[in-house]
Design a protein that fits this description.
This protein is of the alpha/beta class and 263 residues long. Helix content is 38%, strand content 19%. Helix 1 (29-44) runs parallel beside helix 2 and helix 5 runs parallel beside helix 8. The chain is globular, with a radius of gyration of 17 Å. Residues 1-9 and 256-263 have low confidence and may be disordered.
């Protein structure tokens, strides 16, 4: 990881915050949306020592080159490169290598309105929860232009995992999450999945091990160019749920900071 963080003494007492953008072949969205996120954070996160980390996982287009250019243009944008693909793999590495007090991620298409981000970050910083996650399935959420089949699949998936694990949260797969250092240390290394099921597994493990998961309603606009394939993702999600159900849920060890992450 390339470190470009400024070292002003005035920032030494601020809560540190890393927001990760996991990317795979996103040469079109990345330059536009990384700059949009940077501008938003510069305006709304002045009480944080923040940075944006672009986590490229196996892109074959110019995504990595763009990430490098962004890091040179903006001191608060860093990048890292993984040869192996998988959003979960990228998040695990970025979060476990980070030293920030609070970490998070969002999808690079910015489908979730950024206006919700300060509330999630503040809730984690203030100790209201261990994980703050955006939700499209609770009261107050606004969802625009979402195809009917995706809406049905999302609500059906929510019903399945809540029936299996009796979780309080409803939307596991919204790409908009923030967590504290304790959760990164104790829970993230326990997550086995390296792909899309990573989010669900992390939330289930966290809640069932006594960590507080809090959902926030978000405004979400469907991306017609989404890389998520409904059938394939649903199959992987069901396999992941069955694995957790029948093999049991992992628990943090007393010295979980020494746990070996799944790679």
């Amino acid at each position: 990881m390339v470190s470009q963080m400024p070292s002003e003494a005035t920032e030494s007492s601020l809560t540190s915050l890393d927001i990760v953008l996991p990317v795979l072949n996103e040469e079109l969205d990345l330059p536009v949306n990384a700059k949009a996120l940077h501008g938003f954070m510069a305006e709304h996160f002045q009480k944080y020592q923040w940075r944006i980390v672009v986590a490229d996982n196996g892109s074959t287009d110019s995504t990595l080159d763009i990430a490098k250019q962004l890091s040179q243009e903006f001191p608060r944008i860093d990048y890292m490169s993984l040869e192996q693909r998988g959003r979960g793999r990228a998040l695990r590495r970025a979060w476990t290598e980070s030293t920030a007090d609070v970490v998070g991620y969002m999808d690079v298409d910015l489908s979730t309105d950024l206006e919700a981000l300060p509330a999630l970050v503040d809730a984690v910083r203030d100790g209201e929860c261990d994980i703050a996650t955006g939700s499209r399935l609770i009261r107050g959420a606004e969802v625009e232009r979402r195809p009917f089949k995706r809406e049905v699949a999302s609500r059906g998936y929510s019903l399945v995992f809540r029936s299996m694990f009796f979780t309080q949260f409803r939307d596991a797969q919204c790409g908009f999450k923030v967590l504290n250092r304790r959760t990164v240390r104790d829970i993230v290394p326990l997550v086995s999945d390296n792909r899309w099921f990573f989010d669900t597994e992390m939330l289930i493990l966290a809640e069932k091990n006594g960590y507080v998961v809090l959902e926030f309603p978000v405004k979400w606009t469907d991306d017609p160019d989404t890389r998520v394939k409904i059938v394939g993702t649903a199959y992987e999600d069901v396999k992941g749920l069955l694995r957790l159900r029948f093999r049991g849920l992992a628990k943090p060890t007393r010295d979980s900071g020494d746990a070996t992450p799944h790679v």
